[in-house]
């Protein structure tokens, strides 16, 4: 079970990579950012599918998207000029809290 959670965590990190990478593809008109983004997408989906051999679909999918949403939002605010506000930070905190509850439950 522990390996499945690590695999799911890695899938979430690749989701962050492809979500951020999308910005740099400029509509998939730039070759290398597009290759990176599609490769990260494939890795993310593959790792998710491996984790789903063990973990429940609802829990795994929610955690996977939560990792991606949280990480992408943080990178956007820290490095890409996205606005930082208390409501955004509270929202990220709620997502992280939800991930922790789902992890504890299953």
UniProtKB/TrEMBL annotation:
Keyword Manganese: no
Highest taxon in the source lineage: Bacteria
UniProt GO cellular component terms: plasma membrane
GO biological process: xenobiotic detoxification by transmembrane export across the plasma membrane
Compartments (UniProt record): Cell membrane
Residue intervals passing through the bilayer: 35-54, 61-80, 86-105
Membrane topology according to the record: Multi-pass membrane protein
Short name of any one Pfam family annotated for the protein: Multi_Drug_Res
Keywords per UniProt: Cell membrane, Membrane, Transmembrane, Transmembrane helix, Transport
GO MF annotation terms: transmembrane transporter activity
PANTHER family the record matches: GUANIDINIUM EXPORTER, SMR FAMILY PROTON-DEPENDENT DRUG EFFLUX TRANSPORTER SUGE
Stated family: Belongs to the drug/metabolite transporter (DMT) superfamily. Small multidrug resistance (SMR) (TC 2.A.7.1) family. Gdx/SugE subfamily.
Annotated protein name in UniProt: Guanidinium exporter
Record organism: Roseococcus suduntuyensis
């Amino acid at each position: 079970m522990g390996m499945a959670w690590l695999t799911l965590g890695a899938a979430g990190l690749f989701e962050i990579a492809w979500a951020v990478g999308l910005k740099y593809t400029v509509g998939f008109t730039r070759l290398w950012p597009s290759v990176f983004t599609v490769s990260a997408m494939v890795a993310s989906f593959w790792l998710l599918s491996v984790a789903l051999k063990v973990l429940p679909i609802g829990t795994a999918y929610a955690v996977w998207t939560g990792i991606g949403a949280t990480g992408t939002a943080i990178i956007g605010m820290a490095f890409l000029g996205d606005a930082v506000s208390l409501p955004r930070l509270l929202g990220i905190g709620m997502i992280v809290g939800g991930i922790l509850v789902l992890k504890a439950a299953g």
